[in-house]
Each structure stands twice: as structure tokens, then as C-alpha cells.
Design a protein that fits this description.
This protein is mainly α. It folds into three domains: about 1-25; about 35-95; about 100-130 and about 140-170. The protein is built from six helices and no strands. The chain has helices at about 5-10, 15-25, 65-95, 105-130, 140-170, 175-185. Helix 4 (about 105-130) packs antiparallel against helix 5. The longest helix is centred in the C-terminal third of the chain and has 31 residues, at about 140-170. It is elongated and about 100 Å long.
Length: about 190
């Protein structure tokens, strides 16, 4: 979606919803909020400057192969530092003593989803009974089931965040290493 289409979409939203969408998809860059990893590899090929024939005219004692290998190692290091290290640093900065920086946002979304669903169900029940001329008053059982659902949802969210933290610490976020290895084998 281009910027013009996004602005047109935003025009239909009320200001509060617009800000919520903006905050969810494009978080603030200040220190209190999560940032975005800086990727400095903008399409440059770190290996493009390696000329495999550069040292072909050297005498064997000048170790042309070793020099070519050193060029390759320098290019690999540059590639790593520009493409992978910033992302790894960003992911490492997401880890806190108790979880990740995403936990508070996840908990807020879980609360909003559970309470919004409970309000929706109660509204549907009230409308359904209203069609027959009856009034709807939620029982205490409805409130306790909502609370138990909310507690379960918040606990699941905390467990998911603890799992995310462990994956960030071990470097196995979403099985990236396994997926990459599987892709490499199938080629």
C-alpha cells in the first residue's frame, strides 16, 4: 500500500483509532518505545569487489590464494556487519530482565480483545432478548467467566513472551536457523 492509499485509509478513521493503528504498525522511535532495526545493507553486494583473478599472476611464494581468501573473509565480515549485526543488536535490545519490551503491548491487546469480545457477546444477548421485549441483565456468572478468560489470556500472553525471550536469548527465534538449514538442503 503506497503512502497516498494509506493517507486515504487514515482519513476514514476517527482520530483515536488512527493513532492506535499508527502506534501499532509504526511505533514511536523514542527510548520508551520499541524501535526498528537499522538495516544498512541497502542492496550493496559485499562480494562485488572481489576479483578472483586479482592474484593469479603472483608467484606461489606470494600466496595469492591466501590473499584472495583474506579478501573473501573481509567481504563476509562486512556483509555480516551491515546486514545481520544490526538486526541481532535490535533483537538483543528487546530482552529485559522479566521478558521482552513487547510484553506490555501484548498484554494491552489481550485485555482489549477479551473485554471487547465479552462486551460483544453481552450486546448480542441484549439485542436478542430485546427483540422479544425482554431486558437483559448479565449474571454474576458472566462476569466471573469473563474474568477467568481474561486471567487465562494474560497468563498465556506472559508464557508466550517468556518463550519469545528464551528464543531471543538462544538465537532460535521462530526456528530461523532450522528454516535456513532446510532451505539450503532443498536447493
Amino acid at each position: 500500500m503506497d503512502d497516498d492509499a494509506m493517507e486515504e485509509f487514515y482519513a476514514y478513521l476517527n482520530p483515536q483509532v488512527r493513532q492506535e493503528v499508527q502506534d501499532f504498525y509504526f511505533p514511536n522511535q523514542d527510548g520508551a518505545n520499541r524501535g526498528v532495526p537499522t538495516y544498512s545493507g541497502q542492496g550493496t553486494n559485499a562480494y562485488s569487489n572481489i576479483n578472483p583473478y586479482k592474484y593469479s599472476g603472483l608467484a606461489p611464494e606470494d600466496m595469492g590464494g591466501d590473499k584472495l581468501y583474506a579478501d573473501l573473509i573481509r567481504a563476509q565480515t562486512q556483509d555480516y556487519m551491515t546486514r545481520f549485526a544490526p538486526v541481532e543488536n535490535f533483537l538483543a535490545s528487546e530482552i529485559t530482565a522479566t521478558g521482552t519490551k513487547a510484553l506490555q503491548g501484548d498484554l494491552a491487546r489481550t485485555r482489549q480483545a477479551v473485554l471487547g469480545a465479552a462486551d460483544n457477546v453481552q450486546g448480542q444477548q441484549a439485542r436478542s432478548m430485546g427483540r422479544y421485549g425482554m431486558s437483559y441483565t448479565p449474571s454474576s456468572q458472566v462476569g466471573s467467566s469473563t474474568v477467568s478468560t481474561l486471567v487465562g489470556g494474560l497468563n498465556d500472553t506472559r508464557l508466550a513472551d517468556a518463550d519469545r525471550r528464551t528464543q531471543l536469548l538462544t538465537g532460535s527465534l521462530s526456528g530461523i536457523g532450522q528454516n535456513a538449514a532446510a532451505t539450503g538442503r532443498s536447493a
